[in-house]
Amino acid sequence: MLADPLAQALDVLAGRPLVALTGAGLSTDSGIPDYRGPGSPRRTPMTYQEFVSGDVAQRRYWARSHVGWARMARAEPNVGHRAITDLERSGVLHGLITQNVDGLHTAAGSRAVIDLHGRIADVMCLRCGARSSREELQRRFAALNPGFVEERGAGIEVAPDGDAELDAVDGFRLARCTACGGALKPDVVFFGENVPKDRVARAYGWVDDMAASSGALLVAGSSLTVMSGLRFVRHAHKHGVPVVIVNRGITRGDELAAARLDAGCSEVLTALAAPAGGAQRG
């Protein structure tokens, strides 16, 4: 069932330099669920406006994140992440734009990466802007809330951003910025928050490079539901850059794709990265 669409994708990508755009579907084989794949439960992530409203919302977010991080921190890159790293090392892949916040591309060895929505492993202060590590914050939360993960975390569903579905967060104690006492926020782009302009400009620049070098845009594991990713597909199509989409289920960019594979990322990307794969022919 995969053979013909895969052959079509290989034909489109053959001999071309690539830029990749990845989403949550790429990390499902690492044990991190996606937002909108087939069978995914309905999720309602906290918005930026809600988070900055005060302690009540921040307590709910950080209590859930404290439980979810225990699972996120154990996630390892899968063969799809490693295939993308192989494409970069071979010189085929010139840049990677990821909508994921899990940091698994970097862990797999990818270097030319734009973390479009930030990284869940980093924390920032809303008052002074100081940055620190999520691992350090996890230790502080554990000291402030002993036994919380063990008591509340068993069997809990965890979202792609590390948010755990907890019903009760009463009594959870917040940690504050050690520099100024301000509120802490994960250094990720929340719903309702804008992606930093410099990241967007760099990503557009990479797509423009593909237009100038007869390259292609490879989308892997994204439903392209939100505009932060879809805009690059639209930009590529507008400027004559072929788009290949690999995703389980439909996407908002399907009508713009030169080739479309309704399949898992790991198997397809492994085929693309293989020495005999079409992405390296020519």
Shape: elongated
The number of distinct helices, counting runs of at least 4 residues, comes to 10
- Radius of gyration from CA coordinates: 20 Å
How many strands?
Answer: 9
Overall pLDDT, averaged?
89
Strand fraction band?
5-15%
SS-based class = alpha/beta
Spatial arrangement of strands, main beta sheet = 3-2-1-7-8-9
The end-to-end distance, rounded to whole angstroms, is 26 Å
Q: Report low-confidence residues grouped into runs of 5 or more.
A: 276-282
Helix content range: 25-40%
Biggest pleated sheet: 6 strands, parallel
How do the SSEs run, as a string of H and E? HEHHHEHEEEHHEHEHEEH
Element layout with pairings:
Layout: H1 3-13, E1 18-22, H2 48-51, H3 55-72, H4 79-89, E2 93-98, H5 104-108, E3 113-115, E4 118-125, E5 131-133, H6 134-144, H7 148-152, E6 184-188, H8 197-212, E7 216-220, H9 227-238, E8 243-246, E9 259-261, H10 265-273
Parallel strand pairs: 1-2, 1-7, 2-3, 7-8, 8-9
Antiparallel strand pairs: 4-5, 4-6
Descriptive notes:
This protein is of the alpha/beta class. The protein is built from 10 helices and 9 strands. The strands form 2 sheets. The chain has a 6-stranded parallel β-sheet with strand order 3-2-1-7-8-9, sandwiched between helices. A 3-stranded antiparallel β-sheet has the order 5-4-6. Strand 7, helix 9 and strand 8 (243-246) form a beta-alpha-beta unit. The longest helix has 18 residues, at 55-72. It is elongated, with a radius of gyration of 20 Å. The two termini are 26 Å apart. The model is unreliable at 276-282 (pLDDT under 50).
